[in-house]
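queue> pop job 88
queue> type: inverse folding (structure -> sequence)
queue> payload:
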C-alpha cells in the first residue's frame, strides 16, 4: 500500500526537505516567478534583478539561498552575488547608469570599486558615449597596482611606472573636465543674466559686456584646449588649436572657435546681431558641451554663407546710426573687383581704378573712343 505525501516540490527544489514554512515557500515562489519573468540584459533589469535577489535572500538561510537560486531559478551563486552587489553598492548611481546604458558586466566590476573609480567610469561613459568591459578593467587595474596609500595627489608626481603615469593622466583629465565645466557654467550664467536684464527694445552695449564675457570665454577656451590636446604630440599652444589637431568640421572645433570669438571683442558680431548670436549660438553650444546626456543633440543647423558672414575677418563699416562707438567709418578703399582684366591698383590704398596693363599706364588715360583702331584686326 502506497503512502500519500504532501511534500512540496517546485522546479527541482524540495521545500519540505529544508523545513521551509508554507508562508516562506509562497513568498519564494512569487520571487521565483518575478525573477524568471525578468530579463537580465538591460541596465534597468540588472538593478531590478539585484533587488529581487536581495529580497529573496532574506527569506532563507545563506546556504539555503544559494541552493534555492541555483535549483529553482537556474542562476549560479556567483551570478546571484554579482547582481546583489549591484543592488547594494551601486544604488546611488542607478539613474546615471541607466541613462548611460551601462552593461550588467561593467556594473559587476564597478560594484566592488571605490567611489572615485565609479565616478571616473561614469564620467568616461558620459564623455565617450559608453564604456566597455576592457576599459573598466583598465581603469580598475590602476587601483589594483596601487601607489602607496600615503601618496597624496601632490606626491603622485613622484610615482613611477605605468600606474603612476596613468594616475597622473586620470587626475589631469578629471581636473581639466571639472575646470571646463565650472568656467562654462559661469559663462552661461553671465550670458543668461545679460540677456534677461536687457531692456526690451534696446540693444546690448559692447562696452558693458566686454569686461565680463571676454575673460570668462578665454578661461573656458583654455580649459577646453587642455582637454582636447591631451594626447596630441608636439609643442602646441592650447589657445590656437587648428584643423590639424581637431577637424574644422567637428562639433568640438565649433565650440572651441565660438569661445575664441567670444574671448576677442574684434570677432563679435555687430551690435544689431549680438543678442541673437548670444541667444541662438553661444548658449546652445555651451549647453551641448556641458550636457550629461549620453549623446546630446547638436543644437545648430547646417551653416550657410549668410550665417558665417560675421566670423570672417573684421566687420564692414556700417552706415546705420546705431550709436555704437565700434561702428566708426574708416577710409574707403575700393575693392579690387573694380579693376579691369589685367589691371592693378597703383598703390596700396589708392582710389585710382586701373583698366589696362600696368606697362601702358603713363599719366592720364586716353578715352577709348579717341584711340586709333589697329590697322589689322587679329
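queue> result:
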Amino acid at each position: 500500500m502506497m503512502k500519500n505525501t504532501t511534500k512540496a516540490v517546485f522546479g527541482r527544489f524540495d521545500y519540505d526537505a529544508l523545513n521551509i514554512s508554507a508562508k516562506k515557500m509562497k513568498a519564494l515562489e512569487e520571487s521565483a516567478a518575478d525573477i524568471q519573468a525578468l530579463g537580465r540584459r538591460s541596465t534597468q533589469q540588472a538593478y531590478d534583478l539585484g533587488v529581487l535577489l536581495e529580497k529573496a535572500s532574506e527569506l532563507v538561510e545563506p546556504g539555503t539561498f544559494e541552493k534555492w537560486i541555483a535549483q529553482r531559478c537556474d542562476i549560479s551563486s556567483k551570478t546571484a552575488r554579482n547582481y546583489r552587489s549591484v543592488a547594494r553598492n551601486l544604488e546611488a548611481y542607478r539613474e546615471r547608469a541607466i541613462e548611460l546604458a551601462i552593461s550588467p558586466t561593467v556594473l559587476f566590476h564597478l560594484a566592488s570599486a571605490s567611489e572615485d573609480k565609479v565616478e571616473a567610469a561614469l564620467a568616461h561613459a558620459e564623455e565617450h558615449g559608453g564604456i566597455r568591459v576592457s576599459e573598466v578593467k583598465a581603469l580598475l587595474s590602476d587601483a589594483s597596482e596601487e601607489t602607496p596609500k600615503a601618496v597624496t595627489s601632490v606626491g603622485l608626481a613622484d610615482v613611477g611606472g605605468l600606474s603612476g603615469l596613468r594616475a597622473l593622466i586620470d587626475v589631469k583629465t578629471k581636473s581639466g573636465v571639472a575646470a571646463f565645466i565650472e568656467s562654462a557654467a559661469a559663462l552661461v550664467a553671465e550670458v543668461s543674466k545679460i540677456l534677461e536684464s536687457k531692456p526690451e527694445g534696446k540693444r546690448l552695449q559692447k562696452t558693458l559686456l566686454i569686461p565680463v564675457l571676454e575673460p570668462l570665454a578665454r578661461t573656458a577656451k583654455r580649459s577646453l584646449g587642455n582637454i582636447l590636446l591631451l594626447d596630441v604630440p608636439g609643442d602646441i599652444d592650447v589657445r590656437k588649436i587648428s584643423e590639424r589637431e581637431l577637424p574644422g568640421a567637428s562639433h568640438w572645433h565649433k565650440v572651441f572657435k565660438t569661445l575664441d570669438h567670444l574671448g576677442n571683442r574684434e570677432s563679435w558680431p555687430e551690435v544689431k546681431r549680438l543678442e541673437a548670436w548670444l541667444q541662438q549660438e553661444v548658449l546652445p553650444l555651451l549647453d551641448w558641451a556641458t550636457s550629461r546626456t549620453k549623446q546630446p543633440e547638436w543644437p545648430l543647423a547646417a551653416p550657410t554663407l549668410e550665417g558665417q558672414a560675421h566670423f570672417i575677418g573684421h566687420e564692414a563699416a556700417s552706415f546705420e546710426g546705431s550709436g555704437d562707438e565700434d561702428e566708426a567709418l574708416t577710409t574707403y578703399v575700393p575693392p579690387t573687383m573694380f579693376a579691369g582684366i589685367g589691371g592693378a591698383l597703383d598703390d596700396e590704398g589708392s582710389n585710382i581704378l586701373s583698366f589696362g596693363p600696368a606697362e601702358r599706364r603713363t599719366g592720364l588715360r586716353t578715352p577709348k573712343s579717341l584711340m586709333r583702331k589697329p590697322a589689322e584686326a587679329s
